[in-house]
Amino acid sequence: MSNLPSKFWEQLPLGNGVTLLAHDANGLAALNKPEGVLSHPNMESEVPRALLTVPYALKGECFNWTPADIPGAAPRRLYLLNRLDSATSGVILVTANQALAAYMRELFLHKHITKRYQAVVFGKPSEPSQVWRDRLAVQKRGAKIRVGTGGDKVSESRMKVVRQCRDAVPPLALIQLEPLTGRSHQLRVQCADRRLPIVGDLTYGDFAANRDLARATGLKRLFLHSYETVFDYEWGGKKFRFEATAPLPPEFQQLL
Fold first, then answer.
1. Domain that holds residue 159
2. DSSP 8-state symbol, 198
3. Is the pLDDT of residue 210 over 70?
4. What residue ranges in the chain does DSSP mark as E strands?
């Protein structure tokens, strides 16, 4: 996007611990969201806890601000392209280009974007790699979503074991998960259903194991991380490839 200020990406009002991973000439970028940070605020009081610490328009799905420290600066916008639960860390995509935002959301809708997560789970995966297929049931209870198996929502993910910690008690494994469908809480439910609950999952996890591990290590978080996003796209008659990787947080290294 040629009309971006030269220091646009350096001057983003990023939230606590949020970092810029990558950006391209079309105004597309990836940010690394820490655990506990909101993808966007739903109300004014949540702005300090969000990806950017500026107002967010729910209708336009964009952050809006005017830099106060830059005389004569024009109003700026940054469009949010996907979301992560506050408890999940890692790669999240944004763009400064409204037209590109609409195009990118279509790519997400039609599953043309590859997202890979890494998670620490309790247990021992039965195979080094598998394709998980399930039918999930989604229930909404007020503002909360609860997901179980046995529904009509076809859900599919690829699983690969990255590291097995066999000496840990209980056993732990670092696995990579690539969702092929985009159901709410899909990865957490699919892991739990295979007796591989994600460490720190307070909704679908092993509550006793979570409590014991937190007591022994002092680590209290959901060990699910959006590790990598990769895709090809066409813009302005040219083809581009975008890749972004968010290194595993220190808590993962400490646990493993």
1. 117-224
2. B
3. yes
4. 19-23, 28-33, 56-57, 62-65, 76-80, 89-95, 114-122, 129-141, 144-149, 153-165, 172-179, 224-235, 238-245
Contact residues for 17 (Cβ-Cβ < 8 A; gap 6+): 34, 37
Model-level pTM greater than 0.90? yes
Give the residue numbers marked as catalytic.
85
Q: Residue 219 maps to which CATH number?
A: 3.30.2350.10
Q: For residues 184 and 187, give the distance between their C-alpha atoms in angstroms, rounded to a whole number.
A: 8
Residue 136: how many CB atoms within 10 A of its CB? Answer: 21
Kindly state whether residues 217 and 127 are assigned to the same domain. Answer: yes
Token match 């005017």: residue?
66
Q: Which one, of 120, 201, 221, lies nearest residue 164 by Cα?
A: 120
Note if the bond before 247 is cis, omega within 30 degrees. no
pLDDT in tens, 90-133: 999 999 999 999 999 999 988 899 999 999 999 999 999 999 99
